[in-house]
């Protein structure tokens, strides 16, 4: 059987979010995902999204969704769309999130290995700030999202644990402190590297990521009541098992490249 790769590239994410919130996308970004825009139009009648949460769990592969669908219930129940997405090469975190939020391939944004320099090219966040949107990034210390998008006039909250990050993001939502909120969770990725992608410990964290998304959907319905709001579950790359049952990623193979994204409109 031929190897199959998904066809919607995560580079299309930046322009999709910009179009949903009605501000110009980064100039070089790939085109938006039309079905997401169509779904938002059906929900909001063509009016722009006013508040959006971009939830970034790490290393959630599409094969995990196919094999352990029940563990994704929290994401599915609070989503309007489930999309098969394609990551970029090398399929490692800084490269992938750089492509997701610049809208361009690695050879354009310049991060082409597991390195975490500050991006100098235009990002979704630059475009949002230029349009007057309030942007916040919440991430654990040392991880890619806490580093590659620095040096911008947005709110950064760099904390020690995913639990602290989730609490801070909830606080920001409750205070209506930002229009575009980015939340990164590393817990599945860090666990699958140590114990394997299908270990009991890793699958527990996978379910936790889906349930975290559900919790934020419930909170958003209260905190953003009266606002046109959207949420997206946006992992960066997948994963596969290596020797000794450990987990890894970074290769050009379906297990690492095929991922799943969810979009919900509240």
UniProtKB/TrEMBL annotation:
Keywords tagged on the record: Signal
Short name of one Pfam family: Phosphodiest
Signal peptide: 1-29
Entry annotated with the keyword Iron: no
UniProt entry tagged with the keyword Repeat: no
SUPFAM superfamilies: Alkaline phosphatase-like
Protein name: Alkaline phosphatase family protein
Taxonomic placement: Bacteria, Bacillati, Bacillota, Clostridia, Candidatus Ornithocaccomicrobium
């Amino acid at each position: 059987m031929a190897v199959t790769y998904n066809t919607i590239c995560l580079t299309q994410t930046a322009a999709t979010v910009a179009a949903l919130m009605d501000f110009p996308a980064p100039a070089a970004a790939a085109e938006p995902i039309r079905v997401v825009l169509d779904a938002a139009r059906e929900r909001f009648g063509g009016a722009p999204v006013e508040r959006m949460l971009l939830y970034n769990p790490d290393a959630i592969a599409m094969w995990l969704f196919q094999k352990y669908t029940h563990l994704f219930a929290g994401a599915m129940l609070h989503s309007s769309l489930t999309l098969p997405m394609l990551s970029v090469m090398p399929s490692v975190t800084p490269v992938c999130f750089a492509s997701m939020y610049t809208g361009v391939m690695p050879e354009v944004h310049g991060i082409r290995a597991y390195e975490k320099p500050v991006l100098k090219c235009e990002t979704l966040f630059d475009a949002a700030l230029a349009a007057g949107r309030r942007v916040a990034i919440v991430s654990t210390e040392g991880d890619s999202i806490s580093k590659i998008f620095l040096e911008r006039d947005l709110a950064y909250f760099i904390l020690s644990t995913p639990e602290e990050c989730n609490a801070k993001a909830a606080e920001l939502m409750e205070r209506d402190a930002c229009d575009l909120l980015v939340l990164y969770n590393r817990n599945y990725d860090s666990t699958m590297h140590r114990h394997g992608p299908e270990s009991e410990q890793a699958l527990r964290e996978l379910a936790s990521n889906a349930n975290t998304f559900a919790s934020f959907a419930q909170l958003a319905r209260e905190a953003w009541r009266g606002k046109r709001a959207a949420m997206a579950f946006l992992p960066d790359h997948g994963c596969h098992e290596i020797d000794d049952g450990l987990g890894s990623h970074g290769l050009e193979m379906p297990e690492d490249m095929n991922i799943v994204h969810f979009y919900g409109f509240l």
